[in-house]
């Protein structure tokens, strides 16, 4: 029997709009239907882009204090309804209610930082008289909005990663169209609700729900969309880059983040940090700890403590405050992770704990003795699996850490500042956390990677830089 649900509308150029064709949103914990959302068509996206062109003109004329006021009000609305937002994140996605509550808090901060950064979009004066013959010229440049931005967002942070695109876009005077992950659209629609309640002018923001195969290409290819901001997988990112044409592209494409643990490290702290970093959001975290390189003199001690702490993880009901880890986003994803682990074991890897699947749930898993020719050794797992390696010294650890196609963030645990500095200088990543796991991040810092981990940087100030362009103004003075 089909469960009747109210049906959520999408936010189409400032209006809540439904469609006859809908998409079911299911809770991965039990596959129950939570709600439905409209399945937008290619024609819908084309029309939305036309509306956004007008929205870009409206946004560009908003005074800075008006942009700030709207963003602050949106943040206040979310704070006043934080239980609803957290519950929605936990229902439609993989996060536990504790993890979801933290995401809501981060979203509020992301928006408030966006409001503050709106007042800091500065240009500079230009000394034109540095060029002979230009002694009678003065001028400057200013940062101006790029226009219409297309944002394609993932399921793993369905509220805050949308805010990381919407907040800077509105702060910098742009219009933005969000295409949220098909499996987690409700949180993005709640963000739109906050901006609607805050009085954002119509056409500046749209959240269009639908299948990527139907509406994604339209958004990516359209010449009126001047920038694509994408967070997701490498293959999808490469496909977008091929299709986008002449426009700005900002991409965060994941990683298989390494952490180095040296013999002088605080092992108790290293274990606690890396266990959390490996299994937060069921390991579906672009910054998640995947590979840990432990100096051989402390490998046995670290391994024993790590497995013991992992075995204590409570997997179960996402809505319970006692649960540490919920399911993966779909059973299909859990099967994919299961196959990767089984392949590694068949090739000689040793399973220390975990390795069990129950529908969409996959237990926190620790492997060692991992052969280099298995998929899990080189590619992003995006699941609750961590690999432990023994290394002779820091040089070997750095070499192995760099021997992949990704480079988002890394961590190193050591009390030796010289060794920390060596890792900082030689590791090919966008960020290094010293005495912390790779998954540490604040929303104000520049965030992005090297190699195939992406292009450009997020983090509000840095996203605003990506979403604006310099316009030069020069005055030729006649009586100078």
From TrEMBL:
Keyword Oxidoreductase belongs to the record: yes
Pfam families linked: Aldedh (PF00171)
PANTHER family referenced in this protein's UniProt entry, alphabetically: ALDEHYDE DEHYDROGENASE (PTHR42991:SF1)
InterPro entries referenced in this protein's UniProt entry, alphabetically: Ald_DH/histidinol_DH, Ald_DH_C, Ald_DH_N, Aldehyde_DH_dom, ALDH-related_metabolic_enz
Domain Aldehyde dehydrogenase: 17-473
The protein's name in its UniProt record: 3-sulfolactaldehyde dehydrogenase
Record keyword NAD present: yes
Catalytic activity reported: (2S)-3-sulfolactaldehyde + NAD(+) + H2O = (2S)-3-sulfolactate + NADH + 2 H(+)
Function: Part of the sulfo-TAL (or sulfo-SFT) pathway, a D-sulfoquinovose degradation pathway that produces sulfolactate (SL). Catalyzes the oxidation of 3-sulfolactaldehyde (SLA) to sulfolactate (SL).
Family the entry assigns: Belongs to the aldehyde dehydrogenase family.
Protein keywords: Carbohydrate metabolism, NAD, Oxidoreductase, Plasmid
EC number: 1.2.1.97
Species assigned in the record: Priestia megaterium (strain ATCC 14581 / DSM 32 / CCUG 1817 / JCM 2506 / NBRC 15308 / NCIMB 9376 / NCTC 10342 / NRRL B-14308 / VKM B-512 / Ford 19) (Bacillus megaterium)
CDD domains: ALDH_y4uC (cd07149)
GO function terms (MF aspect): lactaldehyde dehydrogenase (NAD+) activity
């Amino acid at each position: 029997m089909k469960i009747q649900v109210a049906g959520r509308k999408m936010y189409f150029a400032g209006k809540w709009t439904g469609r006859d064709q809908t998409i079911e949103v299911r809770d991965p914990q039990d596959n129950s239907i939570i709600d439905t959302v409209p399945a937008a068509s290619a024609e819908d996206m084309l029309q939305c882009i036309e509306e956004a062109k007008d929205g870009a003109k409206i946004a560009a004329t908003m005074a800075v204090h008006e942009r700030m006021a709207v963003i602050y009000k949106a943040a206040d609305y979310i704070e006043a309804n934080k239980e609803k937002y957290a519950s929605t994140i936990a229902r439609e996605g993989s996060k536990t209610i504790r993890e979801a509550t933290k995401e809501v808090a981060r979203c509020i901060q992301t928006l408030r930082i966006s409001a503050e950064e709106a007042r800091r979009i500065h240009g500079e004066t230009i000394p034109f008289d540095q060029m002979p013959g230009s002694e009678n010229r003065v001028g400057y440049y200013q940062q101006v909005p790029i226009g219409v931005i297309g944002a394609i967002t993932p399921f793993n942070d369905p509220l805050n990663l949308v805010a990381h695109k919407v907040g800077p876009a509105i702060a910098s005077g742009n219009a933005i169209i969000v295409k949220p992950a098909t499996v987690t659209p409700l949180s993005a629609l709640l963000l739109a609700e906050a901006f609607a309640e805050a009085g954002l002018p119509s056409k500046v923001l749209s959240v269009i729900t639908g299948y990527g195969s139907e509406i994604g290409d339209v958004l990516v290819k359209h010449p009126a969309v001047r920038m694509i901001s994408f967070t997701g997988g490498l293959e999808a990112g490469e496909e977008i880059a091929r299709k986008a044409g002449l426009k700005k592209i900002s991409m965060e494409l994941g990683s298989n983040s390494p952490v180095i643990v040296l013999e002088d490290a605080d092992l108790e702290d290293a274990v606690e940090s890396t266990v959390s970093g490996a299994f937060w959001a069921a390991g579906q975290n672009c910054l998640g700890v995947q590979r840990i390189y432990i100096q051989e003199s402390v490998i046995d001690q670290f391994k024993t403590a790590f497995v013991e702490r992992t075995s204590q993880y409570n997997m179960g009901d996402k809505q319970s405050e006692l649960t540490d880890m919920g399911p993966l986003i779909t059973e299909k994803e859990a099967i994919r992770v299961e196959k990767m682990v089984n392949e590694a074991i068949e090739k000689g890897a040793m399973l220390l704990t975990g390795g069990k699947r129950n529908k969409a749930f996959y237990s926190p898993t620790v492997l060692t003795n991992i052969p280099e020719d298995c998929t899990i050794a080189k590619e992003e797992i995006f699941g609750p699996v961590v690999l432990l390696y023994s290394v002779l010294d820091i040089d070997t650890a750095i070499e192995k850490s760099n021997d992949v196609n990704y480079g988002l963030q890394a961590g190193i645990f050591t009390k030796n500042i010289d060794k920390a500095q060596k890792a900082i200088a030689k590791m090919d990543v966008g960020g290094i956390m010293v005495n912390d796991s790779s998954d540490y991040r604040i929303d104000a810092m520049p965030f992005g990677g090297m190699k195939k981990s992406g292009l450009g940087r997020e983090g509000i100030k840095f996203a605003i830089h990506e979403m604006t362009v310099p316009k030069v103004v020069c005055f030729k003075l006649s009586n100078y």
